[in-house]
Amino acid sequence: MNSVIHKAETRGFANHGWLQSNHTFSFANYHNPDRMHFGVLRVLNDDVVTAGMGFGTHPHDNMEIISIPLEGDLEHKDSMGNVAIIKEGDVQVLSAGTGITHSEYNKNKDRKVKFLQIWVFPKERNLEPRYDQISIRDIAKENKFYQILSPNQDDQGVWINQDAWFHLGKFEKGKSDEYKLKKDGNGVYAFIIDGEVEINGTQLSKRDGMGIWDTDSIHVTATNDARVLLMEVPMSL
């Protein structure tokens, strides 16, 4: 087993006034040659958007973009004609393919929006762009990881153009679960949304990240109440 640990305080940080963003991997003005990506996982941004503000219309291509709101409501509009609100308990994916434009705004006037913005390199390039959004409230489980994303259209969760599987878990202190990898050659990046956990003997706290590869499974134990996002991705680009 191989692993890498990214403590919360070592992430890049940008304060744009209306946006505060912590970057696990190199992004925009934050460049760290040792933190470019984890396999095909290219971006993991922890964003906070001020009330009434947001990202104006901008382009993307050949990237799988996943948004996971943690608090508040975010309005999405794109060049495919999609207009939607995503909020805590939702997962959104934008397969940019040959190219799209979109905007994301905090429509609330009285509170911030907090969400994770995740970019994954696609398995195939220049496919037709696609949008998908689901509520995960009905599939959420206590003290166990449950799937929110996969490469399969008919599987649980949203689907993307990559051999990747994402799982969420909300654990009470002392509870644990084992995650078994789905595909040879993949690794898992664990991001601690809240609380404290121990993963394969390593203690991690809120907003810490840990990448693990060359293993068949990982074991997660909550040393305090915790929420954990697991992102299984191919390690080769």
- Gyration radius (Cα, Å) is 17 Å
User: Number of DSSP strands?
Assistant: 22
Cα shape: globular
Cα separation of the termini: 20 Å
Task: Work out the count of structural domains.
Answer: 2
Instruction: Summarize the main sheet.
Output: 7 strands, mixed
Number of helices: 0
Going by CATH, the architecture of the largest domain would be: Sandwich
Order of helices and strands: EEEEEEEEEEEEEEEEEEEEEE
Mean pLDDT level: 96
Structural class, from helix and strand content?
Answer: mainly beta
**Uncertain runs:** none
CATH fold description of the largest domain: Jelly Rolls
Helix content: under 10%
- Approximate strand percentage: over 45%
CATH class of the largest domain: Mainly Beta
Provide the fold topology.
Blueprint: E1 2-6, E2 12-15, E3 19-23, E4 41-49, E5 54-60, E6 64-71, E7 73-78, E8 83-87, E9 90-95, E10 100-106, E11 113-120, E12 130-135, E13 146-150, E14 158-159, E15 165-171, E16 176-180, E17 186-194, E18 196-199, E19 202-205, E20 209-213, E21 217-222, E22 226-234
Parallel strand pairs: 13-14
Antiparallel strand pairs: 1-20, 2-3, 3-4, 4-11, 5-10, 6-9, 6-11, 7-8, 7-10, 9-12, 13-15, 15-22, 16-21, 17-20, 17-22, 18-19, 18-21
Condensed summary:
With 237 residues, the chain is an all-beta fold.
Describe the structure.
With 237 residues, the chain is mostly beta strands. It has 2 domains: 11-135, Sandwich (Jelly Rolls); 146-234, Jelly Rolls, CATH 2.60.120.10. It has strands at 2-6, 12-15, 19-23, 41-49, 54-60, 64-71, 73-78, 83-87, 90-95, 100-106, 113-120, 130-135, 146-150, 158-159, 165-171, 176-180, 186-194, 196-199, 202-205, 209-213, 217-222, 226-234. Strands 1-20-17-22-15-13-14 form a 7-stranded mixed beta sheet, with no helix packed on it. Strands 2-3-4-11-6-9-12 form a 7-stranded antiparallel beta sheet, with no helix packed on it. Strand 18 (196-199) and strand 19 (202-205) form a beta hairpin. The mean pLDDT is 96.
